[in-house]
Amino acid sequence: MAVVLPAALFARGLMGRFASMSIGNAVTGFFLWELVKIVMTVAVMLMAHRWVSGLNWPAMLVGLVLTMKVYWLALLFKGQRKPAESN
How many domains does the chain have? Predict the structure, then answer.
């Protein structure tokens, strides 16, 4: 949740109408939504610390890193697809 929710909010924010108005707005919007994503990630992790008793922080951080790396694996596998044969 600490990766998926902030990333979804980030993607939604980048698709807003102000992002496509000019290059300056797009760059500013990117950095603004990236900041929102980082703050939300930290907030979700702190909420997990409050709500889950006996939370194992190293395990949570390893899970966070592995979840973030799934994006790279998806891009890697997407590039390895073979095109469909046409008859």
Answer: 1
